[in-house]
Design goal:
399 residues, 5-stranded mixed sheet, 3-stranded antiparallel sheet, 47% helix
């Protein structure tokens, strides 16, 4: 007989180290394979902190990713309790999810991403030129890590450069957990206003890019194209930029690992995987809700209850990884869930890996003596955002 679950707890959020998950995950993972938690407002739910259960949950047919059933595990004014907009496939289930996703999957394959490498390298080096002009001494987030993935996606879907920064501000606003409803409405209005101008103009003049191909395919109407474009923009702008910044911060504070990488560039692919595992910037995890009563991990999960997969904790599970709290860029055993798992695994994972690899290598090649310009504990962190990373990263180097 399975023991009764412990009283519900709140999602752990307090960190004693910026590179480690919240401390409260460890005792929960050691105590239970699945933990009863209480969501803001008191609704009951569940938390997964083990790798095996996480993989099982994220591929389980009785759990849904649909937006209308998801509850945020932390307090926020923003609750999306209605179905996702047409074309916004990330928060839908099959067959809707696969219907839209398969239209763009071909743009994010390994081969297609390899073809994009020259464009990515050009953008990375242009931003490094700007960094060099600004220094020595500059905010790496503002000049480099935020700009590179945003510029890459804008070129891929044909967004004019003049619109990029305003779109970045809207995405940042919507990703802030303390965002108020009026702030969110203003950001949504700003993004929707741009798309309402941009999409019809592009439908009249399709170009040689992702949107152009979707328009020529003739399967999507204007609203679906807007939803698809918004999904690609929000998915690319915030995540890869934070990971790029967080990886630099981590390597600067783990000089033995940085030295190893600089001595042997062939380690870069494994280093990117290890940084993804070790850091896991989706610090609120991935949530699903039960479509029916389900027996899972020895518990009965009731229809409608939300289960949150604590991705940062899962990727430090000692059952899955040897010495999981040690950063080891030469680690061979990856299999992390930082980019999700199952049908909802990150669409742009190959693109993200390429941007990270090119970005890290070019940055440390251009500035081999790069270092923090402030004490490490003074780097401000994005605790208040859906994706974790440095809010700014002051760096300097020898002229």
């Amino acid at each position: 007989m399975v023991d009764a679950p412990h009283p519900p707890v709140a999602l752990p959020t307090e960190r004693s180290c910026p590179f480690n998950p919240p401390d409260g995950y460890t005792p929960l993972r050691e105590r239970d394979r699945i933990t009863r938690i209480s969501y803001p407002g008191g609704s009951p739910g569940w938390l997964i902190t083990r790798h095996a259960e996480a993989k099982a949950l994220l591929t389980h047919k009785s759990f849904s990713a649909r937006q209308e059933g998801i509850v945020s595990p932390v307090a926020t004014e923003l609750q999306y309790d209605r179905p996702a907009d047409p074309g916004a496939f990330a928060k839908t289930d099959d067959p809707v999810h696969s219907h839209y996703r398969k239209m763009v999957t071909g743009f994010f394959t390994v081969r297609r991403t390899r073809d994009l490498a020259p464009m990515i390298e050009r953008i990375v080096h242009e931003q490094l030129d700007d960094l060099e002009k600004a220094g020595p001494g500059a905010d790496l987030v503002e000049i480099f890590t935020d700009s590179v993935p945003a510029r890459v996606m804008c070129e891929m879907i044909g967004v004019p450069e003049a619109e990029r920064k305003s779109l970045q501000r809207h995405v940042e606003t919507l990703g802030r957990l303390s965002c108020t409803v009026p702030e969110a409405l203003a950001a949504v209005s700003g993004m929707s206003g741009f798309l309402a101008r941009f999409i019809p103009a592009r439908m009249d003049d399709p170009r040689d890019d992702i949107l152009g191909d979707l328009i020529r395919g003739g399967q999507l109407d204007e609203q679906e194209l807007m939803g698809m474009a918004a999904t690609l923009i929000t998915g690319a702008f915030d995540t890869t930029g934070n990971m790029l910044a967080m990886g630099v911060y981590t390597l600067l504070e783990h000089p033995d690992q940085l030295a190893k990488l600089q001595e042997d560039p062939e380690l870069m692919g494994g280093a990117v995987e290890e940084l993804l595992r070790f850091l896991t910037i989706s610090h609120l995890g991935a949530s699903r809700w039960a479509l029916e009563d389900v027996e899972f991990a020895g518990r009965t999960i009731k229809k409608g209850e939300v289960v949150t997969v604590a991705l940062p904790a899962v990727n430090r599970d000692p059952e899955r990884y040897a010495d999981p709290d040690r950063l080891d860029i030469a680690r061979k055993d990856h299999g992390h869930l930082a980019l999700g798992h199952g049908v909802h695994q990150c669409l742009g994972q190959h693109l993200a890996r390429t941007i990270l690899s090119v970005g890290y290598e070019a940055l440390f090649d251009r500035f081999p003596g790069l270092r923090l310009a402030v004490p490490a504990d003074e780097v401000p962190m994005r605790d208040d955002f859906v994706h974790y990373g440095p809010r700014s990263l002051p760096v300097t180097w020898d002229d």
